[in-house]
Amino acid sequence: MKTTLYTLVIALFMVSCKTEPKIDYVIIKGTITNAKPDSLLLRSILKPFSKKIAISNEGVFVDTLKVENKDNYMLLAGGRLTYLFLGPGDEINITYDHDDYKNTINFIGNAANVNNYLIAKSNKEKEILGEGKNVYELEESDFKATQKEINKALLELLSSTKGLTGSYKEKEKRSIEYSYLSNLSNYESYHAYYSKIPDFKVSEGFLKELDGIDYTNYEDFLFSSSYNNLLRSYFTKEAEKLSKSDSIAQDVAYLKTVNTLGNQDIINDLLYANAKYGITYTSDIDGYYEAFMNGSTNEEQKKEITENYNILKTVAKGKPSPKFIDYENNAGGTMSLDDLKGQYVYIDVWATWCGPCKAEIPFLKKVEEQYHSKNITFVSISVDRTKDHDKWKQLIKDENLGGIQLLADKDFESQFVQDYLIKGIPRFILIDTNGLIINSNAPRPSSQNLIELFNEYNI
Fold it and tell me: 0.70 exceeded by the pTM?
């Protein structure tokens, strides 16, 4: 009997000490009535994460995301933008009518309260700002008064919203204040742009409320996109000063400035968020890589950036260009890079869905016309997907595009695109008459630097 009782006690002890499995995922699902796109994009606001989620013919979508912490996300689908706050163990069901988003957006699930609050917060801010009003065109006093009105209204909304935890409310209260300060920080440059006053400067004391901000709060860094914006704005301004004083590229100066921060976790996150794509655009790859490696202590991220650095070194100035082979030519047949030997080649990597790419079209046309009789060929390589083939052909016709118009064989997965480590478009490349790289990150057609580069090589 004693043995049986002893065995039972041990068994109960083992059951009671059994560790519950850690939940490290989010379930996101929903139904979009009158859905226009066939997929939506979920993107982290604070981290370099994005994922495409398929939408069925009935407008239904569902996915499970592996996550470590609570995070802020943007959900984009056919021009509709939804802000979300989700973390481990959350399940959210999203429903709305694509044709009446504002009045139909709704959340169900254990994360519904906070996300319904975010919708109400967004609507409250829009209500105060009004339709079609650009707040950054306002004069200083009116701008600050409007921001204070928004700040007060959002704090009142937060206080009156039920179903939010005390911890969330405390952090959100700070985030609302950060949003106010971030908007003040942005005012000078935004007002200069929208009011077309390039040399505009704020009056003395306008930014006094930014004094004494603690830029080392990792909890707020993980929680608040507004706090993130404040940090990035601060370091961008500091980088401008360092760039001028030390005569170094501004992107390198940015990394060096971030490295002076007193919180290593924030340093790692800011460096990686910048370098994941920034290293593919920098004009000083060695200086950029050195600044990243000197600052980061995340070995996994350092390994990834090192791999990217090694790839980019293979497409440095003077290296043989990777080749594209038998890409479809809009004019008929196919074309390979080797077909253009003996000519300078200016390559534009673009897509019909890329707004910044299309914004360069008028400038590209002008440059093509200017160099029509020169020994240079202008080649546009589209990374549109196969299903958008007709859309590519139609845009060429509608825009009366010149030069040589090619379609990459496997969109972004094409070997030529991978070899150049192209992660964002538009991307411009200049190759010499022997097929050697002059610049794998050449200036855009809209930049005067492009003509200066052409002049340097007597094109």
Answer: yes
